[in-house]
Amino acid sequence: MSSLYVLGARQRKSLLKREWEWNLYDAAIILEVNTLSGAVRTCIEYKSPPEVLAGPKSSIVFKSGSLIGDKLYACTSTEVLIFKLPRFEQIGYVSLPCFNDLHHVVPSSDGMLLVANTGLDRVVKCTVEGEIVEQWCVLPELLWSRFSPHVDYRKVPSTKPHQSHPNFVFELKGETWVTRFRQRDAICLTDPEKRIDLALQYPHDGVLSNGKMYFTLVDGRVSIANADTHQVERVIDLKEIDGREALLGWCRGILPLHDHTMWVGFSRLRKTEFRENVMWAKHIFRKGMREKPSHITLYDVQNGISLREFALEEYGLNIIFSIFSVPAAP
């Protein structure tokens, strides 16, 4: 593996001092990073059409996606896009009125799309043509108890503060799971008695690799859970590996390579009106600590060292979500 795809967005150049986070980014970006040469190229720069945006300054970001074979599934806050690699030919598109602040999309084992519809605190299952098959509230409540089926939520700038903020959808043994930011866990939507407790900090991504679930926690830790027992077996603090002289940033994307090596993505901390989301940073910030730019790092967690690092803001990536290995050419 010598190249990576990294998904995220470019920050607007001219911002107000207290700009809302849903207005911060003007283009969704996918970069290809050659990890051997250090060369970086832009694969795609995407801007959503006006009809699926709340306004002319709405943020356009590629959130967390999925790479299956030669198909890359990506989402903005209001859209699901499917690209065929390596040319990034757009071969699929779904945008539904109930979509608001999407955070992840993954194809299900039965050929549908599973979408973390974060703004409505739910997960949506739909066909690739956009027909909704099922919806799950991620909290114990009726489906439309807090929201209306008659509103086009693509036109609503934000529904924050969210009561749960589901981030990342995955399947375990044919069952649908999702991480929940506020509840600090991952729950099974098809069997609510099943749960993975991630109480240390707010979780984001949850990636299955070699029978283990790798969960990023936003403060720079990785919780590793057994996919069979649903118990956390190990917690890795990446801040201890990097040293305490720098603030790593908001931790989201992860790409496990082996049992002991993984790529992890960090975004520079942004100012936010919902400051409770970044209270964890105040507990680790010390005078003289420098703030790292948005970057990806390859860690050897067995030996407790970082092997490689790429800062990506100079290439137009100011916020980082998913990281994928570029598939080998056929």
Summarize the structure.
This protein is 3% helix and 45% strand. The protein has helices at 238-242, 279-284, and strands at residues 3-11, 25-34, 40-46, 66-68, 71-75, 80-84, 89-94, 102-107, 113-117, 122-126, 132-137, 166-172, 175-180, 185-188, 195-197, 203-209, 212-217, 221-226, 232-237, 246-247, 250-256, 261-267, 290-291, 295-300, 305-311, 319-325.
Topology:
Blueprint: E1 3-11, E2 25-34, E3 40-46, E4 66-68, E5 71-75, E6 80-84, E7 89-94, E8 102-107, E9 113-117, E10 122-126, E11 132-137, E12 166-172, E13 175-180, E14 185-188, E15 195-197, E16 203-209, E17 212-217, E18 221-226, E19 232-237, H1 238-242, E20 246-247, E21 250-256, E22 261-267, H2 279-284, E23 290-291, E24 295-300, E25 305-311, E26 319-325
Parallel strand pairs: 20-23
Antiparallel strand pairs: 1-2, 1-26, 2-3, 4-5, 5-6, 6-7, 8-9, 9-10, 10-11, 12-13, 13-14, 14-15, 16-17, 17-18, 18-19, 21-22, 22-24, 24-25
Strand order of the biggest β-sheet: 3-2-1-26
- Count of β-strands: 26
Q: Tell me the span between the first and last alpha carbons.
A: 14 Å
Q: Unreliable runs, pLDDT <50, ≥5 residues?
A: none
What portion of residues belong to β-strands? over 45%
Structural class: mainly beta
Choose one word for the global shape. globular
Please tell me the CATH architecture by its name.
Answer: 7 Propeller
Using the CA coordinates, give the radius of gyration. Answer: 18 Å
How many helices in DSSP terms? 2
Listing every helix as H and every strand as E from the N terminus to the C terminus, the arrangement reads EEEEEEEEEEEEEEEEEEEHEEEHEEEE
